[in-house]
Each structure stands twice: as C-alpha cells, then as structure tokens.
Amino acid sequence: MKKHILLTIMILLVFGFILTGTPSFAEERMYKVTITNITAGQTITPPLLISHSRDFQLFELGSPAMPALVMLAEEGDPEPLIEHASGLPSVFGYSAASEALGPGDSVTLEFKTSGGFRFITAAGGLATTNDAFFAIRGIRVLPDGEKTVYALAYDAGTESNSESCKHIPGPPCGMAGVRNQDDAEGYIHIHSGIKGGADLDPIIYDWQNPVAEITIRSVR
Description:
alpha+beta; Immunoglobulin-like; 4 helices; 29% strand
C-alpha cells in the first residue's frame, strides 16, 4: 500500500514539474524572428511573416501562384497577402517589415503562437528580378530556444525572366507595375538566377541559394 502511495506522489510531482517548468504550446508564446538578406546584390522587398496552423500553405511547387503571392513576387507588395491570410481560420497572426532589406541587412519581427498555431511562413520579393521571391514554409517553432533556417529563391512563374529593365521594379530599373507574361512558366519553381541576357549583370545581381537566413528565437 505504501509503495502505491509513494508511486502516486512521485507521478504527481513529475507531472506538476512538467506543467510548471516546461514551456507549453497551450499558452500564448512570443517569438522574435530575424531575417537577413545574404545575397551580394539583390534587394529583398519588405518581408512578411505569418504564424499559422499546419493547415495553411503559401504555395505548392509545380502549381500556379495565388494572386496575392504574385503581387509579392512581381511588385514586392505584401498587402494583398496580408489581406488574404488575415481572413483564414488557419492563420493566428502576421508581422510585416516596413522597409526593404539591402544586401547584408537584417530586420527582426515579433509574432505570437498559441495552441495549434505553432508554424511560421515568411516571404519577400527579390526586387531586381521579374518575379522571384524567397520563402520558408510551415517551419515548426520550438516552445523554447532558438533555431536557424535558410530560405531559397523561388520563381512565381507569372512573368518571363527577360531581365529587361522595362519590367523590373528594383534597382537599377525602377519599372514597377509593368508585366511581361510572354513565355511565363505558369507554375512555381526554384529560381534559376540571373543569366545576364539583357540589362542585369549577373556578377552583381545573381545569387547562389539560399538567399536569406532566418533565426527564430523564443522570448517568453
């Protein structure tokens, strides 16, 4: 009898420690995410961070890009994607940077998780391209501690990669809102980089994947 009582007490003590001493996803938790542009010559348009459940998906490789993602990839405009995500039950919240990131620049965004909303997605446009963007998708955050992941560059497949300044919003071109859809692939795929076929010098504007470093840190 005494052994059963002692065993019960030990189980309760261990269970109580787990509840009080270990971070839990059941409670709301705060994170800081630092996004760093690790390209040599590309400007990353103001990045957007979304916290969500496992049901949210920004895109699928080999499938067409949603219109809101097209605006991010082609024009660097996160507002349509914010509007789209904020109306979904699978999304807990979002955080958006106010400025673009030059080569080597970083920005730190804050976000919260709670319950089943323990995943993050981040994205931003590569300004000196026709329709490239970086993204991480459905990264599961830790209840405590820190993790670093690296983002690839994707092609939205909605514009021809002409590399002509007639259709590129970023430096040195500055031609926002002008599209060239001739020979657009029609689906999202890994971007092949800058080839130097027109106005963009690959020595300056090309990259080797990955293009962004993302560090996720729990703060409480």
